[in-house]
Protein: 5-formyltetrahydrofolate cyclo-ligase
Amino acid sequence: MQTKPEFRKAQLKRLNDAAKQTQAESAGLVAQLLALPQWHSARTIATTVSGPIEVTTGGIIEAAQQAGKTVLLPRVMPHRQMAFLKDPGSANRVTSKFGIPEPPYVEAAVDQHPDLVIVPGVAFVPATGARIGFGAGYYDRFLAKYDGPTVALVPSVMNFAAPAWPVEAFDVLIQTLLTV
Structure:
């Protein structure tokens, strides 16, 4: 079995090579999300602004706004922590050190208790909820303290029958994994 960094490096290449396929699979995965009871009951949705190798989140953000839900986006903080804040809209987002659009930090506006968290990653095991992210541990640290529902949208290139990476005690399992 590869180490996490070895697996992540190889998987990121696979994701880049399959970016068009992931984009093509995005609409079906988003449709599955919008049909979930967890989606319907949530008033606040935490998601990310997707990159080119990820499931497109623009439709999620738009659907949430049309449904009157509040969209929360993560902002990276010191000590590999993450704060969720209301999406200020694309024109008012700032770019993080990782090149990811995020909301400006306003301490009084932090909401660490969204009703639903859509968790990103680079690979998932739907049978167990195992996930490997981009490598900084932000989501695992957040999810260790979060007790609400979690969902991941898993395109075919991210879908694994068993982990091809070490799953460690601090890796938080995702509750619901949607696949193509």
